[in-house]
UniProtKB/TrEMBL annotation:
<dbReference type="GO" id="GO:0005886">
    <property type="term" value="C:plasma membrane"/>
</dbReference>
<keyword id="KW-1003">Cell membrane</keyword>
<dbReference type="InterPro" id="IPR003838">
    <property type="entry name" value="ABC3_permease_C"/>
</dbReference>
<feature type="transmembrane region" description="Helical">
    <location>
        <begin position="306"/>
        <end position="329"/>
    </location>
</feature>
<feature type="transmembrane region" description="Helical">
    <location>
        <begin position="790"/>
        <end position="811"/>
    </location>
</feature>
<feature type="transmembrane region" description="Helical">
    <location>
        <begin position="703"/>
        <end position="723"/>
    </location>
</feature>
<feature type="transmembrane region" description="Helical">
    <location>
        <begin position="349"/>
        <end position="370"/>
    </location>
</feature>
<feature type="transmembrane region" description="Helical">
    <location>
        <begin position="412"/>
        <end position="435"/>
    </location>
</feature>
<keyword id="KW-0472">Membrane</keyword>
<feature type="transmembrane region" description="Helical">
    <location>
        <begin position="254"/>
        <end position="270"/>
    </location>
</feature>
<dbReference type="Pfam" id="PF02687">
    <property type="entry name" value="FtsX"/>
</dbReference>
<dbReference type="InterPro" id="IPR038766">
    <property type="entry name" value="Membrane_comp_ABC_pdt"/>
</dbReference>
<feature type="transmembrane region" description="Helical">
    <location>
        <begin position="752"/>
        <end position="778"/>
    </location>
</feature>
<feature type="transmembrane region" description="Helical">
    <location>
        <begin position="464"/>
        <end position="484"/>
    </location>
</feature>
<feature type="domain" description="ABC3 transporter permease C-terminal">
    <location>
        <begin position="706"/>
        <end position="818"/>
    </location>
</feature>
<feature type="transmembrane region" description="Helical">
    <location>
        <begin position="24"/>
        <end position="42"/>
    </location>
</feature>
<keyword id="KW-1133">Transmembrane helix</keyword>
Length: 826
């Protein structure tokens, strides 16, 4: 019996393999399997890279990071719990060379460096790297290759920093303690400790890192000691997670959530294809029963046939996912240097099995329908409405499972799924409204257009799904290629108008006085000047940050490092109150803060929650009394956390300033003198900010274009699947039309009108969605209307209509070949 089932399943599989329905089904499965397997492989590669990166670039078993140098008692306690300690000091500064400047991470180290790993140097850019112990000699400086190129410097050149002249003697190739703590690696330089000391940098802007050699028990003891004695310090160790691990996890989850739209499109296409498959399966089961087979045998044949179909596409999926994995690793190597591609067959098969289980759920309605098969189906081949409802229930189950698996933050999940739901609802509502109103208005008229609208109204669901796929694809492409580029240029002009073309991101009191003096001498306009303190959040409602939440959060990652704490008595002009109440001018309560609304929501905080902030080694408790948000029209400098001005009478800490200036083009060359006087002064030009935005936009465009291409391909499959599912009805319709004496050309005109209307509605929906999104973004960021490029919109309209009409006519070729003779034979 088993051999008969296997033999029959194999025979049926080979016959159905050539059918269009199975080709469409295989294409959908290949696309989604490739996407999920590739995402799993890329995620595994990056997590493995981060683990190796932590082990190889930590330079110690544990690193204790603090803004100040440990006092003698703290250092003695740390030595007692460790085997060896090496102190490194670094800060972000600016190096200048012949009116050229570059932002750089300047570092020095104590005796015993490197503690673990190898410090690699080279005599020049063309020489081979070699291992070295120690730091530069006094009067020397080592620069990495990018910094040498950025400053147009060479080995032997002399570079001035803080009025001290240093000679470039080596190329800095690799530091064993250069742990990635951001999305990009900063340019690096090393100097002698004696030179570092005489440069006169403020102690509070220097990052002190204690490289510690310790075993597991000592690491645990140091972590407990740090939490109780110096809670503001940061700790990284080889037993912990990489600082970027949560960032990548959030990225992976966002891509996973975004893939729901692909599963939604696949569900639509598979629902159309399953309708045809269900009729065939019921007919085949009834035939088997007429020859004496029972339902269990028929069900076994169907299951085995489906398994063969899945197994047949596994090699192709493995090949495509491996290729996509390789391409993704090459693309991400710019963000994660030294990230390498590695083949992982086991993970590929595991992911394949998981996605196969997803398609198994999609197949359940067909197998459930076989339970109701009977020989009478040979006469009345009908599927009950229950089976259609089961299909959508299974699709909903799959979408929910994907959302739950990739959800780590309710705000992110709500924003992603909410935006998708709104887009889908708008396109479906527009489709229903136009088709219904068009059919109602033309009901009493004769002609091809009224008849075409009437037929489209009768197939409203299938038409809406076709419009939905094409419309979503067009919306994503328009949003990325047009709106984001317009947004970038508008952002630059807005910053130029309100913030000038130079941003001072960090200046001490003394530095700011010299900056203001310099601006007066040069006749430079100061647009904004706001003070702040450096603070670090260590507790929320009495809980350590790791105890309070363990979900990935960009806000939490920043708060764990350091934030700018601003003080003001009144609400800033570029802020508005979202919730709570701002403190009054005569309030004596200084321990209250207002938190940026997005940060409040991202961390799940509420009005009344308590925050403990460490400022200059002292801990202060604050209560959240309000939340604020950015308001355009008065500059872009705003702060996440703000407190009353009266708090400054109780807090003793170094003060810093953020400011924005408007410089003439020739005045940029004079910044070198200012950086020579204050090398730790942090400034960035509008041009550099714009370049950063453009680089991010380029990456976003690549991702969204790839994503939109997948949606476009799936929408094409939806169109083809719908045409295939309704092909029999279409052939009958065309046969009936010809039976009334109309030529076959009339059927072609009706089909042409139908696809022109479908493409036009999809394109109009995408344009409307882009205009709505653009208007909301521009209103919230610039308080002005968005003026889109009409030529882009018209080009999109024509391209979408041409695509839909071409695809629809090619797919409808078979149904247009029907005749009256065929109708009579039916």
């Amino acid at each position: 019996m088993l051999s008969q089932v296997v033999s029959l399943a194999w025979q049926v599989y080979r016959e159905e393999k050539r059918q269009n329905q199975q080709r469409f089904m295989r294409l959908i499965q290949v696309l989604l399997m490739t996407l999920i397997v590739t995402l799993s492989l890329v995620s595994n590669s990056i997590q493995g890279f981060l683990t190796d990166n932590l082990n190889n670039l930590l330079g110690a078993d544990l690193v204790l990071q603090e803004r100040r140098e440990l006092n003698s008692d703290e250092l003695q306690s740390l030595r007692a719990m460790s085997q060896q300690i090496v102190l490194t000091r670094s800060l972000s500064t600016t190096l200048t060379n012949n009116n050229q400047w570059q932002s750089v991470k300047l570092k020095t180290a104590a005796q015993g460096y490197p503690l673990q790993g190898e410090l690699l140097l080279a005599d020049d850019l063309k020489s081979k790297a070699y291992a070295h112990s120690g730091v530069p000699k006094q009067g020397e400086i080592w620069l990495d290759s990018r910094l040498l190129a950025g400053l147009s410097a060479q080995i032997g050149d002399r570079i001035s920093i803080a009025n001290k002249v240093l000679q470039v003697t080596r190329v800095l190739v690799h530091e064993p303690d250069r742990l990635m703590e951001g999305h990009n690696v900063q340019m690096r330089a090393m100097v002698n400790p004696m030179d570092f000391n005489v440069m006169g940098f403020a102690v509070d802007i220097i990052e002190h890192r204690y490289l510690v050699a310790a075993d597991k028990s000592q690491i645990d003891a140091i972590i407990n000691w740090q939490k109780s004695v110096i809670p503001a310090a940061g700790v990284h160790h080889k037993q912990g997670a990489h600082p970027l691990a949560l960032f990548w996890k959030r990225t992976e989850n966002f891509i996973g959530l975004a893939s729901i739209i692909l599963f939604f499109m696949a569900a639509i296409a598979m629902q159309q294809l399953t309708r045809v498959q269900m009729r065939k399966e019921l007919f085949f089961t009834a035939v088997c029963q007429s020859f004496g087979a029972n339902r269990a045998m028929s069900l076994g044949i169907s299951m085995l046939k489906w398994s063969l179909q899945c197994l047949s596409i596994f090699p192709l999926v493995l090949l495509l996912s491996t290729l996509c994995h390789w391409l993704a690793i090459n693309l991400l190597s710019e963000t994660f240097p030294q990230l390498q591609w590695q083949l992982n067959i086991m993970l590929s098969f595991t992911s394949l099995i998981a996605v196969t289980a997803v398609f198994l759920v999609f197949q359940l309605p067909v197998w459930l329908a076989l339970k109701q098969s009977a020989i009478m189906n040979l006469i009345h081949n009908k599927t009950k409405k229950l089976h259609q409802g089961t299909m959508w229930l299974c699709a909903l189950l799959i979408l929910s499972a994907v959302a739950i698996y990739y959800s780590d933050n309710m705000l992110l999940t709500f924003m992603v799924l909410g935006s998708m739901a709104v887009s889908i609802a708008l396109i479906l509502a527009l489709s229903w409204l136009l088709l219904t109103s068009g059919e109602a208005v033309t009901r009493n008229f004769s002609g091809l257009m009224p008849f075409a609208l009437y037929m489209m109204k009768q197939r409203l669901l299938s038409k809406c799904t076709q419009i939905l796929g094409v419309g979503l694809c067009a919306f994503l492409l328009l949003f990325t290629l047009m709106l984001l580029r317009d947004f970038g240029s508008s952002l630059s002009s807005y910053q130029r108008q309100h913030d000038g073309n130079l941003l001072v991101s960090q200046a001490s009191e003394a530095q700011m006085q010299d900056v203001l003096k310099w601006t007066q001498e040069q006749g430079i306009q100061v647009r904004q000047n706001k003070p702040y303190l450096h603070a670090k959040l260590i507790e929320i409602n009495g809980l350590d940050l790791d105890e309070f939440t363990q979900t990935p959060s960009e806000s939490l990652a920043v708060l764990k490092q350091s934030i700018r704490l601003h003080w003001t008595q009144s609400i800033p002009e570029n802020n508005r109150i979202v919730a709570g109440q701002w403190w009054s001018a005569d309030s004596t309560d200084w321990q209250q803060v207002s938190v940026e609304d997005e940060v409040l929501t991202d961390l799940g905080l509420n009005i009344g929650d308590r925050l403990r902030l460490v400022v200059a080694d002292n801990a202060y408790d604050f209560t959240i009394v309000a939340s604020h948000a950015f308001k355009p029209g008065a500059g872009s400098i705003t702060f996440w956390v703000q407190m009353p001005q009266s708090a400054m009478a109780h807090i003793a800490a170094p003060q810093y300033h953020m400011a924005s200036l408007e410089l003439q083009e020739a005045q940029f060359e004079q910044l070198s003198a200012l950086w020579q006087l204050h090398p730790s002064l942090r400034m960035v030009s509008l041009q550099e900010l714009t370049e950063r935005f453009d680089s991010i936009l380029k990456m976003v465009t690549q991702v969204v274009a790839t994503f939109a291409s997948l949606i476009l391909l799936l929408s094409a499959i939806v169109i083809l699947a719908t045409i295939h599912a309704l092909e029999a009805d279409e052939r009958k319709k065309n046969g009936v039309i010809q039976s009334f004496g109309f030529a076959r050309n009339t059927c072609l005109k009706l089909t042409l009108i139908e696809w022109i209307v479908t493409g036009s509605i999809a394109a109009c929906g995408a344009i409307l969605g882009t205009w709505l999104a653009g208007s909301l973004i521009y209103q919230s960021q610039f308080s002005m209307p968005w003026q889109p490029d009409i030529s882009w919109l018209l080009l999109t309209l024509m391209a979408m209509v041409a695509f839909v009409v071409s695809l629809g006519l090619m797919a409808s070729k078979r149904s247009l070949s029907s005749s009256v003779r065929e109708l009579m034979l039916d």
